[in-house]
């Protein structure tokens, strides 16, 4: 399933909002208990059913109900919450990021049979070339430090997006390629004491243990009838982001007591901006 929320504010704005958030609270909230992870003493899993906020469009002070949140890797974590760090690991960001990749790592961008870049047209994001062990190793040299930065900032987990990029590769990438690169990312995350989320891609639930995924972040699992599959596979440690009110209501009726469900606007606007929507069950 395609990620539907990748419009993010500039890093400087994100960090400024985080500073304001930190200054606006008094005593630090008590962190919600989390389960120890299976991959090392430093890895913690999120609590099943933790109230969630999805802040990829720009960081803003979380509500008093929030226990876990996901923010871009350029943002800061919030003390006392379970903080998930978003990394676009299988595609580039659009705009200036594409220029950066072209300049510094053109050989790591996926090129089609005609020589042009293979691009996710929905988001204008070129795919990264994970087609060989050598390419995957070179990509880890780029993405790995991003994961390291998440750990250094104090995040608890990492959310590598576009695991399903192989489905948009015109047959140039395979499921096996995605599994192999995801395994490298999981190993790097666990080495740094971070849990790692499976982002969407129900097709790879069968490989979750082989890869090392610890929990899941799923967009529109109610709409796509995937909530049960993810819930069973990840023992209820699933954050479901719905974008349609009807799907949100259905998810809450069916699984609101067992699954963390949040309704967000598709552009995940920060609170205070026109179009911002956030509801929980």
Strand order of the largest sheet: 3-4-5-8-9-10-11-12-13
Estimated share of beta-strand residues: 15-25%
**Overall pLDDT, averaged?**
88
Low-confidence stretches: 1-34
- Globular, elongated, flat, extended or rod-shaped: what is the shape? globular
Please compute the radius of gyration using only Cα atoms. Answer: 18 Å
Binned, the helix content reads 25-40%
Protein architecture, described:
The relative contact order is 0.16. It contains 7 helices and 13 strands. Strands 3-4-5-8-9-10-11-12-13 form a 9-stranded mixed β-sheet. It has a two-stranded antiparallel sheet with strand order 1-2. Helix content is 30%, strand content 18%. It is of the alpha/beta class and 281 residues long. It has helices at residues 11-24, 96-104, 133-153, 175-191, 208-211, 227-233, 245-255, and strands spanning 35-36, 44-45, 52-54, 68-72, 82-88, 119-120, 125-126, 157-161, 195-199, 215-219, 238-242, 260-264, 278-280.
Secondary-structure topology with pairs:
Layout: H1 11-24, E1 35-36, E2 44-45, E3 52-54, E4 68-72, E5 82-88, H2 96-104, E6 119-120, E7 125-126, H3 133-153, E8 157-161, H4 175-191, E9 195-199, H5 208-211, E10 215-219, H6 227-233, E11 238-242, H7 245-255, E12 260-264, E13 278-280
Parallel strand pairs: 3-4, 4-5, 5-8, 8-9, 9-10, 10-11, 11-12
Antiparallel strand pairs: 1-2, 6-7, 12-13
Helix pairs in contact: 3-4
In short:
The chain is α/β, with parallel strands linked by helices and 281 residues long.
Quick tags:
single chain; 281 residues; alpha/beta; 9-stranded mixed sheet; two-stranded antiparallel ribbon; 7 helices; 13 strands; 18% strand; globular; disordered N terminus
